Amino acid sequence: MEYDVKDLSLAQEGRLRIEWAERDMPVLRMIRERFEKDKPLKGTRVGACLHVTTETANLMITLKAGGAKVALCASNPLSTQDDVAASLVKHHKIPVFAVRGEDKKSYYSHINAVLDSQPHVTMDDGADLISTLHSERREQAEKVWAGAEETTTGVIRLKAMAEAGVLLYPVIAVNNAMTKHLFDNRFGTGQSTLDGVLRATNILLAGRRVVVFGYGMCGRGVASRARGMGANVTVVETDPLRALEAVMEGFEVSGGAAAAEKGDLFITVTGDIHVLRAEHFRRMKDGAVLCNSGHFNVEIDIPALEKMSRGRRRVRENVEEFLLRDGRRIYLLADGRLVNLAAAEGHPASVMDMSFANQALVVEYAKESHRYLEKTVYDVPEELDREIARLKLASMGMEIDCLTREQEKYLSSWEMGT
Ligand code: ADE
Question: Ligand 1 atom closest to Cα of 347?
Answer without folding.
Answer: 3
